[in-house]
Amino acid sequence: MRGQLANPGVAARGRGAVKLLWQRAIAIVLAFTAFLYGVEGVDSVTDHSLDFAGGVKPRQVDGLDGILFAPVLHADWEHLMGNTVPVLVLGLLTLLTGIGRGLAATAIVWVIGGLGQWLLGASNSVHVGASVLVFGWLTYLISRGWFARNVAQIAIGVVVGLLYGSILWGVLPGQNGISWQGHLFGALGGLVAGWVLSSDERRHRRGADAGRLASSG
Questions:
Q1: 128-151, pLDDT tens digit by residue?
Q2: Are the CB atoms for 79 and 44 separated by under 8 Å?
Q3: Residue 28 CB: number of other CB atoms within 10 A?
């Protein structure tokens, strides 16, 4: 019996799609990182007025704007540089799950993390920083493969967990000047994103399981 040969055109299109995904993901994460540095540059020359105006101010009506703006603001250059590598690595890996899916995961983390800071942050504090996204991307990458039962995604989650899992201690209170509320709710947002954005795979798996049960009945 002659074996089935792979269609070279289909294989080429598959490689082209993967290459395009990488190119788009790299371009987006580099542009976002450059934007963070541009914002910090403006913030520095305006005596950090952007931090107070755009940060999350817990339980203050004018602090609700911070839910939209706080993740692109940083207390100083050291704060931004500390977030840069995790933003590049985890942001890229998140986008490589699919550009649309990665952006949707980011939006979910962005909103849930900001709301958590606004609801539970200390009074008279201002919360800024992309670490909300970092924690959310981390838990999204770790959890999505398990929710979807996707072996490749599980492997990525294991690797990411080994590399960055230790930062999850940052969801616990105790360090002065650290927004553990943002870390905690960003991480919760990542779990929500992992669950919501794996719904298609979960439905497909339930349908396949139902089909196997029916055929064996």
A1: 999 999 999 999 999 988 888 888
A2: no
A3: 17
